[in-house]
Amino acid sequence: MRWGIEHKETWLHQTNPTAKLLLFLPMFVVIVFVHNPNVLINWTIGFIALFMLFSGYRMKHVLLFFVPFLFIFISTSSSMILFGKGETTWFRWGLIHITEESFYRGVHLGFRTLLFAIFGLMFALTTKPVLLFYSLMQQAKLKPKYAYSFLAAIRLLPIMLEEFQTVHQALKVRRAAKANGFRGKLELVKRYAIPLLSQSIRRAQRIAVAMEAKAFTNERPRTFYYEVTLGKYDVYLLVVICTIVALGYYVADMFPYVAIKDVR
Amino acid sequence: MIHIEQLRLKFPGAEKRLFTDVSLSIKKGEKVLLLGPSGCGKSTLLQVMAGIIPRSIDVPMKAKALHIPKQVGYVFQDPDAQFCMPYVDEEMAFVLENLGVPRAEMKEKIERVLQRVRLRLPHVHVPIQTLSGGMKQRLAIASVLALDPDVLFLDEPTALLDEEGTKAVWETLKEVADDRTVVIVEHKIDHILDFVERIILFNEHGEIIADGSTNEIFSTYRSFITEQGIWHPDVWKAYEKPKTAQQPYEEGDVLLHVQSLRGFRQKEEKIAVDELTIYAGEWIAITGENGAGKSTLLQSFMKLIRTEGDMYWRGELVKNDGVLYDNIAFVFQNPEFQFVTNRVDDELAYCLRLEKRSEYEIEEEVERLLRRFHLSAQRHLHPYQLSMGQKRRLSVAASVTERHRILLLDEPTFGQDAKNTFALLEWLEAYRQQGKTIVMVTHDEHIVSEFATRRWGIENGKLVADEIIAPRMLVRGGMR
């Protein structure tokens, strides 16, 4: 989705959102069933390159986006590395038991999460929500009722954020923005959530009424302001993904980084 | 055009019927104003006439005859709750898509309608969020015009707008109305008396008590209209303010003094004042255009945003924000955001309990506040169940305690009817008489000229005027 961060429109932005979704989603499944760390490492390199070259965002922003995912990489892989089971012990100290097997398994898990992050980010950063839903309506025959409900909800988010700040200030002034103990904290969550939710529910209901008042019914066939079609860029994306996947396997086979071919 | 006979309507769960046998008809091309006290059911009637009830909002109703127009346009009150798309052109296109307008014709249609409502934008692909309230309402009018309606229904379209936005919206509406039928519900009627030709007057029981030409109704029922708290051009003329207003209370102490205070929002400097001193017993009105930095100044006084500069409370440098919270109370524009408990009386007791007063003392103080703010009958309710006026009163009553010396208010009379506004102003004046200080952001020139003792003008984040309106009390020792 759009984050209000300046960027260039590249061919990745021009791809059809539904096509992009259909190309990315199977990758999530495929990645889970790959057990050769060499393949995953190659894919990570390939898709990071694609992302950096063609997302249209500046390098410093791209690197910033990856900071939280790097953290997840380290945390998921380290817990597996430190406490996993294995036969070839490298290091043992109390609970910590590092084995060769657990090390590679951990690294493998880390790359898996990193790949998930890349696909998620790549989709989010190169797709406008409005076009995604227009495309889903036109290519995937999503009912307009649902598409526009989602779009209206997206509009509510920044308003909610603003309101959260106001509620925070208001509670601070009344010295009600802090609480001790479990019950106090629970009370605090309610204090923030109730005004925010009640405002949003009311607003959502009003928007729904306003939409129907603007003749939003199922009686007439709709036309579309944005015509979203399939194009050559979708073919490019398909080719690029297939190439990276195939090359990843090939290179992993010919020039493996580690000797292990299956981490299970 | 519209004909309703013996309409009966009751909201599920309500004790009484809202309408019992209400009949009315409106001819083609008429410009009609529905007038009456809050809660009398004008908006509901408008929604029945527009077909929103029962099509979109399901309310049980019955009528002997009900003829309503097919092509209607409805402009709602809340500028933030009538759009579903993020950009101006996309929102306009949403309406055209609903009508099945071919894609090729959309661009041109959008531009034409935007021009009609005089929404001049650099280009049509502008985020709706960046528009002012008045511009949003004109966009709402534009999207309604795209429907090419026979009847325009306007449900307090300017209730949440400032004076400037209100004026612009009515000017636009007068221009685009042409020979269309227009039915309006509105509480601020200064700008529309020359536009509407017929007024239908309701009482608080949802009954029509008068129906006639604007002049006729206005001259016969003036006192009734005033009693109902409706804003009309002569409200302030007829109002008798408290005798103490704008009279100094006593020699005022220096309370808050700030030096080169600057307030920031996301790194950006939004307000900067060199030096300001607030004395005890003052009523300071902060005026200026939307976005000039008025609210930001209030927030800076409380350090609710990032600030730089020195603040002195009664001559002592403020090092701990707690000093500010202890002595200054803040009333926000939307009262709901300030409520922290589930009951009106608990709400009033909240601050007192924080001060660790005895339960007996708290009980007594709460009783006193309930009476003072006319909330005794509502003490068991959840704050959200109160009416607009009651919520505002509760938010003031709950924020202020004995120890507070300054009361900051961000447009407290915004969206309130005349009756509630005067009640609030009178309470604030009585509060000032106890030696407390009022600092309020307002757009209402009448409040400035009738109640304020001093005015600060804010422009582009700078203090451009600091004028004494009422003779200032003698100040001991001058500046700090």
TrEMBL record, chain A:
Which spans are transmembrane here? 18-34, 40-57, 62-83, 114-134, 235-260
The main location is: membrane
Against Pfam families, the record matches this protein to:
CbiQ
Keywords attached to this entry: Membrane, Transmembrane, Transmembrane helix
Gene Ontology terms, cellular component aspect?
A: plasma membrane
Q: Where in the cell is the protein located?
A: Membrane
In its UniProt entry, what is this protein called?
A: Energy-coupling factor transporter transmembrane protein EcfT
